[in-house]
Amino acid sequence: MLIKILVDNTAEEGFESTHGFSALIEDDAKFLFDVGPNELFLKNAKTMNVDLSAINTVVLSHGHWDHGNGLLNLSNKRLILHPDCFLERFRKRNNTPVGLSMSKEQLQGNYEIVESRDPYWISDKMVFLGEIPRENDFESKESPFLLSDGSPDFVPDDSAIAIKSEKGLIVISGCAHAGICNTVSYAKKVCEQGMVFAVLGGFHLKELDEVTKKTIQFFMEEKVSVVGPTHCTSFKVRDEFKKYLDVLDLNAGNQVEL
Ligand SMILES: [Zn+2]
Ligand SMILES: [Zn+2]
User: Fold this and answer.
1) Residue 52: CA count within 13 A, CB half-sphere
2) Could you tell me which of 78, 83, 119 has the C-alpha nearest to residue 103?
3) Which of 48, 134, 177, 226 has a 20 to 30 Å separation from 142 between CA atoms?
4) How far is the CA of 20 from the centre of ligand 2 (A)?
5) Which ligand sits nearest to residue 98's alpha carbon?
6) For residues 171 and 121, is the Cβ–Cβ distance under 8 A?
7) What is the DSSP-derived secondary structure letter of residue 132?
8) 150: number of Cβ within 10 Å
9) pLDDT tens string for the chain (258 positions)?
10) Ligand with the closest atom to the CA of 85
11) Domain 2-257: CATH class, spelled out
12) pLDDT at position 52, please?
């Protein structure tokens, strides 16, 4: 299977970076996973010689601007997402909007929208996980976001992709607001596969705190062979992962074959 990173907070020479995430995932089907905050995914795809007109499906990891605002730049695709992606949401810190800039109605003309809280199989091997249960006792305990009624927003729509492979499970997250360990545990359950081969994407870990420590411990216990923390994973956390695990440095413009 192939992953081409189209948008990330860092970029290879010749590519542009921005805060956001977008990747093209190819196995027994091909689809875009997130589209970043603007049209940059189109520009970087062109530089990579990727023809996005041949891609019929877009999957959104969750309803945050840095993963989804680029949706306004595409049309005539199927869009798979959790129904709560369209919630109005704000940063607690300064009350600025953090959700998608467009409504569901605005997208309906350009997309065939498939909403799913349950796992949704994109192909025989690849599944959109839908709503991820928050089961462990250390992840997703706090949230920096609020809903429009002032209640905390734990981003219930946060999802990920799981891919069954002979080497073991491959999990690709957007921001992992559900917690990357919760995400991996749920992927194992949905795919009925015990071995985890690779986990890539945003892990939403910033500090060398208890959550990061327990996450690294979890990855070691699961014997994850390939780890690719990117986007919303800080560099000090990536360096900490590198002490214990095989870590891939991912940037916009990278192509990863697993
Ligand atoms: Zn997010
Ligand atoms: Zn993000």
Assistant:
1) 25
2) 83
3) 226
4) 6
5) 1
6) no
7) P
8) 9
9) 999 999 999 999 999 999 999 999 999 999 999 999 999 999 999 999 999 999 999 999 999 999 999 999 999 999 999 999 999 999 999 999 999 999 999 999 999 999 999 999 999 999 999 999 999 999 999 999 999 999 999 999 999 999 999 999 999 999 999 999 999 999 999 999 999 999 999 999 999 999 999 999 999 999 999 999 999 999 999 999 999 999 999 999 999 999
10) 1
11) alpha beta
12) 95
The upper half-sphere exposure of residue 191, i.e. CA atoms within 13 Å in the direction of its Cβ, equals 29
Cα 5 to middle of ligand 1, angstroms:
17
Ligand nearest the Cα of residue 62 is: 1
Q: How far apart are CA 2 and CA 24, in angstroms?
A: 8
Tell how far the Cα of 174 is from the centroid of ligand 2, in angstroms.
6
Ligand number nearest to the C-alpha of 158: 1
Contact 175, 231 (CB under 8 A): yes
Which residues keep their CB under 5 angstroms from ion ligand 1? 64, 175
Tell how strand 120-121 and strand 126-128 pair up.
antiparallel
Ligand nearest to the CA of 154: 1
The domain locations on the chain are 2-257
Ion ligand 2 nearby residues (CB, 5 A):
66, 175, 232
What is the C-alpha separation between 128 and 162, in angstroms, rounded? 7
Q: For the sheet containing 22-26, what is the strand order?
A: 111-115, 77-81, 57-59, 30-33, 22-26, 2-7, 255-257
143 alpha carbon, closest ligand:
1
In order, the DSSP letters of 160-197 are EEEE--TT-EEEEESS-TT-HHHHHHHHHHHHT---EE
